[in-house]
């Protein structure tokens, strides 16, 4: 076989463009290299297409254990088609710059999608491509030497094989990533829908929850805890927390929240940058109730009625949550019960309120009350005489004393927040 020196490869093929690490290779480099080779080579190698396919398949199966199974059924069809397509594409491309690339581009993107759908990591198909490329090159070099092909042709052939492996790897990565993103998007939407369903009122039917939970990959617990996150203006720029799969999350809405059978082990570390209030643990059907109290706890924390800690547990503040469950009613009670103090100055009203609450909570002895209030016992006696003048016989009524204590406790909580 004779090859015209003027059409020998490597003369007009542009150098491989440089690219940043990790960026997909520029498609067409391999095709340009194959096309730079003489068309006569297609006639030399086409009779070897089936043998070359078998060699590549055997080497892939030997080197990649996950592919070492009978090439039958959907798996066998996909992998055999991929290798045949690769061999056929390269042969068609020899000396032919106008060869259609759309088919093989679609095939190798599809192979990436198949890898993701079957749960295999990306490195396996990339290993298969590298191993297959080396096997192909060894076979091509053996045939080329037997036919006396010039060394410069074989060098370009080697470069073309490596470039082709690079390009089909990039195509499969694209297909894999696209399938991964699509699945993640679908799963994320399903989990947000599930969260909305579980938190809806009235409680949804158990069958509806179980059906959507199965699709979203969420094991349905008997009891749950809702967690309310303090909304932030920059919440869309915060890094996505690494939460366990058992946690349903909405971190994008105006009232971000989580739901799980139990809070993650280190909630503060998991939600770095967020403040969170943990609601009571309740049956699944009462998830909305847990979230309601978690949000109420967060609201009171923002108002500094409850502590502004990174993690706030509603269970630790049930009395306060109950006392302030209806601020309108507690306001009415305060207004009615503490009306005798209305004519005093703010300072006088605060001192008598504190003294009256200390009297209701203690045995009523001046020394004990003085120690509690941090004042002299004589000061306590003076204040109590003033209180008796203002409230009169109502202080002897147990029912009224209960209402007074509730009103005074609420005043202690709310007055600093509104003063």
Automatic annotation (TrEMBL):
This is PucR C-terminal helix-turn-helix domain-containing protein. Residues 34-199 form the PucR-like N-terminal domain. Gene3D superfamilies: PucR C-terminal helix-turn-helix domain. The lineage of its organism: Bacteria, Bacillati, Actinomycetota, Actinomycetes, Pseudonocardiales. Residues 1-25 are annotated as: Disordered. Residues 352-410 form the PucR C-terminal helix-turn-helix domain. Coiled coil: none annotated. It comes from the Bacteria.
């Amino acid at each position: 076989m004779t090859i015209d020196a003027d059409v020998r490869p490597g003369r007009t093929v542009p150098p491989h463009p440089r690219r940043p690490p990790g960026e997909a290779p520029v498609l067409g480099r391999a095709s340009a290299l194959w096309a730079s080779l003489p068309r006569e080579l297609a006639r030399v190698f086409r009779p070897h297409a089936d043998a070359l396919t078998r060699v590549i398949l055997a080497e892939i199966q030997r080197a990649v254990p996950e592919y070492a199974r009978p090439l039958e059924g959907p798996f066998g069809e996909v992998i055999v088609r991929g290798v045949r397509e690769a061999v056929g594409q390269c042969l068609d491309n020899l000396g032919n710059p106008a060869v259609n690339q759309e088919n093989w581009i679609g095939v190798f993107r599809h192979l990436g999608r198949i890898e993701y759908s079957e749960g295999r990591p990306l490195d396996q198909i990339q290993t298969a491509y590298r191993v297959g490329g080396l096997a192909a090159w060894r076979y091509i070099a053996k045939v080329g030497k037997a036919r006396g092909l010039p060394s410069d042709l074989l060098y370009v052939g080697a470069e073309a094989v490596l470039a082709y492996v690079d390009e089909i790897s990039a195509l499969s990565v694209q297909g894999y990533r696209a399938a991964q993103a699509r699945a993640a998007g679908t799963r994320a939407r399903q989990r947000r829908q599930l969260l909305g369903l579980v938190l809806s009122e009235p409680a949804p039917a158990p069958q509806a929850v179980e059906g959507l939970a199965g699709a979203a990959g969420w094991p349905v617990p008997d009891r749950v805890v809702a967690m309310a996150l303090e909304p932030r203006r920059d919440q869309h720029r915060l890094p996505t927390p690494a939460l366990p799969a058992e946690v349903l999350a909405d971190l994008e809405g105006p009232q971000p929240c989580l739901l799980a059978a139990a809070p993650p082990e280190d909630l503060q570390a998991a939600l770095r940058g967020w403040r969170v209030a943990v609601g009571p643990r309740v049956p699944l059907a009462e998830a909305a109730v847990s979230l309601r109290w978690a949000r109420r706890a967060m609201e009171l924390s923002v108002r500094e009625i409850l502590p502004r800690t990174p993690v706030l547990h509603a269970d630790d503040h049930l009395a306060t949550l109950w006392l302030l469950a209806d601020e309108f009613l507690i306001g009415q009670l305060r207004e009615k019960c503490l009306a005798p103090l209305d004519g005093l100055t703010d300072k006088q009203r605060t001192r008598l309120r504190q003294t009256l609450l200390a009297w209701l909570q203690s045995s009523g002895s001046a020394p004990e009350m003085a120690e509690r209030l941090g004042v002299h016992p004589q000061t306590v006696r003076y204040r109590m005489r003033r209180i008796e003048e203002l409230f009169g016989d109502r202080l002897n009524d147990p029912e009224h004393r209960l209402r007074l204590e509730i009103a005074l406790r609420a005043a202690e909580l709310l007055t600093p927040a509104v003063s």
